[in-house]
Design goal:
The structure is a homodimer.
Chain A lengths: L14 H11 L4 E2 H8 L3 H13 L3 E8 L2 E8 L1 H18 L3
Antiparallel strand pairs in A: 1-3, 2-3
InterPro entries (chains A, B): ArsR-like_HTH, WH-like_DNA-bd_sf, WH_DNA-bd_dom, WH_DNA-bd_sf
GO biological process, one term (chains A, B): regulation of DNA-templated transcription
Protein name (chains A, B): Transcriptional regulator
Chain lengths: ~100, ~100
């Protein structure tokens, strides 16, 4: 029997990561507070998922100052786009079986 | 801004649980070893995810003997079907945004 989970990527397993990647697929970059609001999560929770995705090189972080205020922006990488697309195709295949 | 994760169900967050529920949506019941093979996971991993889904009353467990061999079968509940369908619709909405 076939392993039906073989193309499902562990790195995207959590709904917060799905949300981050989905949002970054359609926006060139998004800052921390916008992402936080969009996903309805705490600072710590969001930061930890962003860190994991950065470690996998699926997203990049750009730190800058707007006036005196620090501002951190996130973007998806080429690798991130590729892997997330694969993941979504696998997910759709899995759930489409119903 | 809208919370884009609001209808994503935490209980289905892990890919193994997605796999279990997807398989049980289309089969009246499945036994432990078939599920294990289908998902390519270890006994302990599968048992722990099955327990969580049972606790939520999304699946039921039926223990029986086939000859002298114990056999455990799993089925989806009405609640499980309802909640999983909601989850899938939310997932599709989220990832369809790209």
């Amino acid at each position: 029997m076939k392993n039906i989970l073989q193309h499902i990527n562990k790195a995207f397993d959590h709904r917060v990561r799905l949300g981050i990647m989905s949002a970054l697929m359609v926006n060139e970059s998004i800052d921390f507070s916008t992402l936080k609001e969009l996903l309805g999560v705490t600072d710590g929770n969001l930061a930890s998922h962003l860190k994991s995705l950065e470690k996998e090189e699926y997203i990049t972080i750009e730190k800058q100052f707007i006036g005196r205020k620090p501002n951190t922006k996130y973007s998806i990488t080429k690798l991130g786009k590729l892997e997330f697309t694969k993941h979504i195709n696998a997910l759709e295949k899995l759930i489409r079986k119903q």
